[in-house]
Design brief:
alpha/beta; 6-stranded mixed β-sheet; Metallo-beta-lactamase, Chain A; single chain; about 210 residues
């Protein structure tokens, strides 16, 4: 499996494209604005078809390009039901948008919850609910690949902001300890912004949430 990091959108939100050339299948994790143009090129080079779009949470910078991706590919969408209002009625995020920005609703095909598992790219995927930054923030854990795509819950040396609607510093710290720090230390953590890190590194050195 190949993993491509694709920062996109007005604030350079990370999208992650997972390609499995042997199966000619791909999955996109999060869809910042204008991400499709770059994703389309990678899919063509890898000769893969995008089957699914996994959304870590409903904040505008992670779903602004989702409707375009779905129109172009027919990809099935997975997300957490706690962020349903933001996916279906994104206008509620208008106070947080930059001038001139627009958002389209995205239809979610599979509402995911804590402990759900499913198969994609020939691997078993585990969903973990990590609220605190956003009510519906989830991570996608691929144990065979030793990686977790965590949205804005945890960053390298930092954590997601908790001052937006539905945020809670106490809930986020508890979520990180229970759902991320409980993963194996060598799990590579891919966040919604910035560089990757590992569970072990953050447990030892993250100044905001100690193990």
């Amino acid at each position: 499996m190949k993993l491509y990091v694709i920062p996109a959108g007005p604030i350079q939100t990370n999208a992650y494209l997972l390609c499995e050339p042997s199966r000619r299948e791909a999955v996109l994790v999060d869809a910042p604005g204008d991400v499709w143009a770059e994703v389309e090129g990678v899919l063509a080079r890898e000769e893969c078809q995008l089957h699914e779009l996994w959304l870590t949470h409903g904040h505008w910078d992670h779903m602004q390009g989702a409707a375009e991706v779905v129109r172009a590919t027919g990809a099935k969408v997975r997300a957490h039901t706690a962020d349903r209002p933001m996916y279906l009625t994104p206008e509620i995020m208008r106070p947080y948008l930059m001038p001139g920005m627009t958002l389209e609703p995205v239809a979610v095909d599979h509402w995911m919850g804590q402990g759900d598992t499913f198969t994609a790219l020939g691997q078993t995927i585990e969903v973990r609910h990590v609220p605190g930054h956003c009510p519906g923030n989830i991570l996608f854990y691929l144990p065979a690949a030793k990686l977790a795509l965590v949205g804005d819950a945890l960053f390298a040396g930092s954590i997601g902001r908790t001052d937006l609607p539905g945020g809670s510093a106490e809930k986020l710290a508890d979520s990180i300890r229970r759902q991320i720090y409980s993963l194996p230390d060598d799990t590579v953590v891919y966040p919604g912004h910035g560089p990757e890190t590992t569970v072990g590194e953050e447990k030892q050195h993250n100044p905001y949430v100690r193990a």
